[in-house]
């Protein structure tokens, strides 16, 4: 074998363990889900193998699934906007901090050390009828009886923002950290105010990081089911909850597979649009 051929094969040899793991743990199960989506759930509860479009017809034409999907995308959009509004100032503060930057980053990473489920359920002790907020309101005399603050859409959005805000901050921080601060100083020396320098120089250069954080927040919030399950009410289910209900509760794997692929297609289309205009490099920086 020639040296050139060996050099061409070397990257694939090095990638083979990772590619094998991805293939076995991601693509093979995905193929099973695709096959299951065309099976049929019979009246006896058994799955009938075949090539039927009944599940896809129900998933695509039933207004119930369409409305839940639109509601899920709306909640994900609101969550993403809230994370951007709250996360950008925090990321800017960390990136421009002259001291204690390591400590600030450590504090930012602390939520990742706690289970997502525990962090979500903690809101029950905070906002519940006998939680900390109601205890404070009662003792201050602001209310005469406990206020019901749980099991509604705003609480679901609050839980999602709590979960996803660090992802937004990290992505924006990576983008801001790569911007030379002397660019703002140069703009100010040419007559710009600090706000004008930020608006005309820093903000445009940091938009890729903001977009990467927005993509992560949107995809993760649209695909979650724990937060609406714990903090939401009967009418606050998101699309992933329908998949969970179909597969785990009803044991209807064919319909659940079709619903999961439907959500995967919508979110995958968003990722492709992002990759077309901005590329995945900035997203990988934020994840790293």
TrEMBL record:
Residues 69-274 form the ABC transmembrane type-1 domain. The keyword Transport applies. PANTHER family: INNER MEMBRANE ABC TRANSPORTER PERMEASE PROTEIN YDCU-RELATED (PTHR42929:SF1), INNER MEMBRANE ABC TRANSPORTER PERMEASE PROTEIN YDCU-RELATED-RELATED (PTHR42929). It holds the Pfam family BPD_transp_1. PROSITE patterns: ABC_TM1. Keywords: Cell membrane, Membrane, Transmembrane, Transmembrane helix, Transport. This is ABC transporter permease. Gene3D superfamilies: MetI-like (1.10.3720.10). The chain crosses the membrane at residues 12-39, 73-95, 102-118, 124-143, 155-176, 210-231, 251-274. It is a multi-pass membrane protein. CDD domains: TM_PBP2 (cd06261). Belongs to the binding-protein-dependent transport system permease family. CysTW subfamily. It is found in: Cell membrane.
């Amino acid at each position: 074998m020639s040296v050139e051929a060996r050099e061409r094969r070397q990257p694939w040899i090095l990638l083979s363990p990772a590619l094998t793991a991805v293939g076995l743990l991601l693509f093979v199960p995905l193929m099973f889900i695709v096959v299951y989506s065309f099976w049929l759930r019979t009246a006896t509860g058994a799955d009938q193998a075949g090539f039927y479009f009944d599940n896809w017809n129900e998933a695509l034409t039933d207004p119930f699934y369409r409305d839940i999907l639109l509601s899920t995308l709306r909640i994900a959009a609101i969550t993403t906007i809230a994370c951007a509004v709250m996360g950008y100032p925090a990321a800017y503060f960390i990136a421009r901090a002259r001291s204690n930057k390591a400590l600030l980053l450590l504090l930012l990473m602390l939520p990742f050390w706690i289970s997502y489920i525990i962090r979500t359920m903690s809101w029950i002790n905070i906002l519940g009828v006998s939680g900390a907020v109601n205890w404070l309101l009662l003792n201050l005399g602001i209310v005469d009886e406990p206020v019901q603050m749980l099991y509604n859409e705003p609480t679901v959005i609050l839980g999602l923002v709590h979960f996803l805000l660090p992802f937004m901050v990290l992505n924006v921080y990576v983008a801001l950290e790569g911007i030379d601060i002397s660019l703002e100083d140069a703009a100010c020396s040419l007559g710009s105010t600090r706000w004008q320098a930020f608006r005309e120089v820093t903000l445009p250069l940091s938009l890729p990081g903001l977009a990467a954080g927005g993509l992560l927040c949107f995809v993760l919030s649209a695909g979650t089911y724990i937060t609406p399950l714990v903090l939401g009410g009967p009418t606050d289910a998101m699309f992933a909850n329908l998949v969970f209900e179909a597969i785990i509760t009803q044991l209807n794997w064919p319909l659940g597979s079709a619903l999961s692929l439907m959500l995967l297609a919508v979110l995958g289309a968003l990722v492709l649009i992002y990759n077309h205009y901005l590329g995945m490099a900035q997203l990988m920086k934020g994840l790293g």
